[in-house]
Amino acid sequence: MAVNLEKGQRISLEKEAGKSLTKIVMGLGWDVAKKGFFGGGGIDLDASCVMFGANKEHKDTVWFRQLKSRDGSIVHTGDNLTGAGEGDDEQIIVQLDKVPSDVSTLVFTVNSFQGQTFNKVANAFCRIVDDATQAEIARYNLSGGHDSTGMIMAKVYKHNGEWKMRAIGEPASGRTFQDMMLAIQNVL
């Protein structure tokens, strides 16, 4: 059964999954909070995965403009421009056993590319799924009605040879991860 994470909570992905993990999926889902004449259409949220080394140096990023890391260990499945549909609206697949040894932290962010704030978003979540079994390991609720255009969702990091996750949930400003780099580096 998946852990419903609270802001700041840390878990061991492998302990929660009950086994060693080689491939995980970070899913992002959302809906428009208010539809209709005054609520407008869809909202374009974008998931990104920013890769960092042990000394907090930026190594690579997977996002809607670069769907695959240079080493091939992380792949974004594509950009959803509206949030329409059920389940995950965007996914980032991480082959943990292929992440380069000089990468110690993966930070997952979400941004509103068109500049809508999160108070216009409903049912927003990020979740980690074991790709082999499709079992949900952890889920973090992102909805909260804040006035920002970005959020640092979570970080997955290697500690003593084991992959762990920390729910961050920090609002930030920016249409892309690039606009939030200082805030991202502050949570490393």
In words, what does this structure look like?
The chain has 188 residues and is mostly beta strands. The protein has one domain: sav2460 like domains (Lipoxygenase-1, Sandwich). It has a six-stranded mixed sheet with strand order 1-10-9-3-7-6. The longest helix has 6 residues. 40% of the residues are buried. The model has no long low-confidence stretch (mean pLDDT 88).
Low-pLDDT residue spans: none
CATH fold field value: Lipoxygenase-1
Overall pLDDT level? 88
Number of domains: 1
CATH architecture: Sandwich
**In angstroms, what separates the terminal alpha carbons?**
28 Å
The count of strands amounts to 12
* Discrete helix count: 2
Biggest β-sheet strands, sense, barrel = 6 strands, mixed
Percent range for β-strand residues: 35-45%
Structural class estimated from helices and strands:
mainly beta
Superfamily (CATH H level) name: sav2460 like domains
CATH top level is Mainly Beta
* Helical residues, percent: under 10%
Strand order of the largest sheet: 1-10-9-3-7-6
